[in-house]
Amino acid sequence: MQLPLISTVGVTVSKLVILKFGAGKFAEGFPVTLQIGMETTRPSSEVTGELPPDSELPLIFSRWQAIYRSLDLPSRPIGIPKSSAPLGGIEACSQAAGQLRARLNHWLQAESFRPIREQWLEKLQPAETIRVILQTTDLQLQQLPWHLWDLIERYPKAEFAFSTVTYEQINFAAASTPSVKILALLGDSTGIDIKTDRALLERLPDATITFLAEPARKDLTDQIWEQNWDILFFAGHSASSGTRETGRIYINSTENLTIHELRYALKKAVARGLKLAIFNSCDGLGLAREFADLQIPQMIVMREPVPDRVAQEFLKYFLEAFARNEPLYLAVREARERLQSLEGQFPCATWLPVIYQNLAETPMTWVAARTDSRRAPARVRHQIGLISLISVGIALLIMSIRYLGVLQPLELQAFDQLLQLRPQEKPDSRLLVVTITEADVQAQAQETRRGSLSDESLAQLLEKLASYQPLVIGLDIYRDYPVAKNLPWLSAYMQQNDRLVTICKVSDPQAGRVGVAPPPEIPSDRLGFSDLILDSDGVVRRQLLALTPPPASTCTAAYAFSMQLALRYLAAQNTSQGVLQETSLETSQNQLLQFTANGAWQLGKVHFQPIAAHTGGYQGIDAWGHQILLNYRAYHSPQEAIPQVTLSQVLSDQVDANQIKDRVVLIGTTAESFQDYSLTPYRTHQGMTQKVPGVILQAQMTSQLISAALAERPLLWTWTLWQEMIWVMAWSVTGGLLSQFVRRLPMGVMAVGGAIVILYGICLVVLIQWSGWIPLVPAALVLVSSSGIVYIKTYHIKTLAESQSLERSLRRSS
Fold first, then answer.
1. pLDDT, tens only, 490-509
2. Three state DSSP letters for 104-122
3. Contact 639, 670 (CB under 8 A)
4. Dmax over Cα atoms in the chain, in whole Å?
5. What is the dihedral of CA 784, 790, 794, 799, to 10 degrees?
6. Residue spans of beta strands (DSSP E) within 206-275
7. What is the pTM of this model?
8. Which residue from 78, 223, 496, 659 has the fewest beta carbons nearer than 10 Å?
9. How far apart (Å, rounded) are the C-alpha atoms in residues 146 and 149?
């Protein structure tokens, strides 16, 4: 059976971005809705925004258009009036284009449009293939050069297209054909060269092309009506009406047609499988807008009068890319951008090609079926192909199961084991934890105490610490009550000392989270929330850096306690060293923390990229706020990695001043009666999960941020979904090939076992050396599964062959 060469399924899964423009005008603004999802699936996220009024933008566009159309360029329009005198040369056109580009991007950076921009940057990665659909019927919006939007330019695999508000999927039975069927209509060629277009089409591989050179109307209609076509191509003169609502093509020197006059024939062609129409002619917006009613899947048109040379070069570049099976959108982008070499002679050539898309359809691809028997013997090639197909299928199945979260508990356990095998690190000497032990709590029996630390003891402790000059003091104790009236010094200290940071807990009635209010004396800029992210097994493996508190929360801190401590330590260090200007601590913090265009944070020398719902072994988690993976400082235990002294030791002067000077000092309880303990990924020698006090956990988080910002210890990172998919598929194919070529069962088991050891070693080395968390459990599962299934298949075939051989022998002997 011969496979068809046209496919409507993309070679790789890509992202689909839809920008819906609501009813509006440039004088009033436009409501906009952004939807983002995987190709062929429902959108996974949606956000709304608004583009503000801008009456100047259409005027700037009209000025550029007038200058462009007044240029004396050899092009393919008919019926487009030119100015009686040029409005400027190439330089004037380029200047007008630059003004239009600047104005467009200024408009798209409006504050009311920021939610859409931020959602784009958060959900989309520059390496992803992205189709951007601008869904609008407003002609002025469609005329704008959207390819110059800085977001589209920033994503090298993104291309935009227009779509109407109404669309419909066309159901047709795709015919199995040995080649791509193209109907090439070569219309009126007066004054232009369309022979080059024909020559370019004739060089296409695996294509059957029917050329109609200046046909009569009846001949054209008959050809469209009577055969199935994959692509309709037109080269010649065309024009749009003054309103750009209709288009007209000139099929010969005496006849011209609107799309409406070919309506019935074209509807028949679409129903039979017409997937793409290319109009390599001038002023095609009217053609596209009229063609959209016929629900053709894709169209490529030229938005303005196109010079003959530009039309030919675009067609050449597009066909080269498309025929080598590049996705249609990327082929258009590549061809469009390669036109830049002509812009010295033909300004704004890269502005002209544009795609019109039926939103209900998926772009076609060009699939060339080639057979090369010289590469390998047919039998080996068939075996390897079959094994690869089985292995890929197993990998897709396992990764699908993983995506549903079924493997998450196993992956987290494997991750914990790898963490514990890392070599030990030195304790972080920049931090010191003042612990309030059970004995310290009992020592305050004569004092008025509402928590683990009385006001009198806190006042003594802060006074002692202040004399040792720490850079930052973090009070990891809830104090939702005011200081006693008999301690005005403590109240004033807490209000005025900008080195003191305290905690509160965010409440969210809708989520059932009970909060704790902050100390009344502490201003909001010195508050940090203490909220933790717990996995399903209660273990803390993630760190929450920031969140947006609900309106009803009494704790309004936007940054985590650890983040506040790290920021203030780094700001104080840099200020003292002259790196930052001698300003307030808050100003220094703002200089340190920057926000990048892709939604990450820049702190010192490191990017803090927030984790998503599917990150590493995490699948489908609630990635609220700004979360990162917690890279515990490896030591005998997480608690021993942080230097500690007790409250009684500080109050009795049993500490060295150098233990406190220029450090981050955290104060918190370790008394078990207060039950402020959290589970960690580490295990005791008895196999029990290690618990650490909350203040030690906060110190671990603070240490991670400071070390990462100073480029001393990297953050934990994971691969993208596609990198993980390739990794898992590679191990699946490895398992299949091992079973295929190591036929003996004992040797095969040893080979697979050795591969698992290698896999485990690679994952451990990557974690130790580069702090990377790469898939271990899915890779091991596909390795075992593919090797087992391929072995069973091979054993079954071998057994069947031996049985048939034995049967033949018995027949001969009888």
1. 999 999 898 999 999 998 77
2. HHHHCCCHHHHHHHHHHHH
3. no
4. 114
5. 60
6. 207-213, 231-235, 238-240, 247-250, 256-258
7. 0.52
8. 496
9. 5
